[in-house]
Amino acid sequence: MQHHDFSDSPATCVHCGELAAGPCARCEVPLCGACCIITEGGTKPYAICRDCAANRGTSLQRGWTAVVSWIALPIVVLVLALLVLGALFGGD
Ligand SMILES: [Zn+2]
Ligand SMILES: [Zn+2]
Questions:
Q1: Under 8 Å between Cβ of 8 and 17
Q2: What is the pLDDT of residue 40?
Q3: Of the bound ligands, which one is closest to the alpha carbon of residue 49?
Q4: How far is the CA of 84 from the centre of ligand 2 (A)?
Q5: What residues make up the domain containing 42?
Q6: What digits encode the pLDDT tens for the residues 10-66?
Q7: Secondary-structure percent of the chain, ordered helix, strand, coil, rounded to 5
Q8: What separation in Å is there between the alpha carbon of 45 and the centre of ligand 2?
Q9: Ligand 1: distance of its center to the CA of 25 in Å?
Q10: What is the predicted pLDDT for the residue at 32?
C-alpha cells in the first residue's frame, strides 16, 4: 500500500474538522453534513456554511432579489436578441 499524501486528501469541514460532505453554496468552504445549513432559496435547497448563514441572517429577501435578477437578466437579453433578429429578418 502506497504512502498517502494527506495534502491531497479530501477537504475537511471548516467548522468541526470532520470529512467534508460538500462546499458552501456561497463561499465554497468545505462543510460536513452536520455543520451545513440547508437554505431553501430557490427551486432546490442548498447548503451554506454558518458564516454565510449568519451574514445572510434570517431574511431571504435579498437572496430572492438576487435570484430574480439572475433569472430576469437573461430573459431581458433574450427578448432584446429576438427583437434584433425580428428587425433583421422580419423587414424583408
Ligand atoms: Zn462540521
Ligand atoms: Zn459560506
A1: no
A2: 77
A3: 2
A4: 40
A5: 1-58
A6: 789 999 999 999 999 889 999 999 999 988 766 778 889 999 888 865 455 566 777
A7: 45, 15, 45
A8: 15
A9: 15
A10: 94
At 9 the pLDDT is: 62
The tally of domains found in the chain comes to: 2
Q: Locate all alpha helices (DSSP H) within 9-60, ordered by sequence.
A: 50-56
* Ligand 2 centroid, distance to 30 Cα (angstroms): 9
pLDDT computed for residue 54 by the predictor: 86
**Cα 7 versus chain centre, distance:** 26
Q: Are residues 12 and 53 in the same domain?
A: yes
DSSP structural state of residue 20 = P
Instruction: Tell me the per-residue pLDDT of 76-87, one tens digit each, with 9 for 90 and over.
Output: 999 999 999 999
Q: What angle do CA 38, 35, 67 make, to 5 degrees?
A: 30
Same domain for 18 and 34, yes or no, is yes
Ligand closest to Cα of 35 equals 1
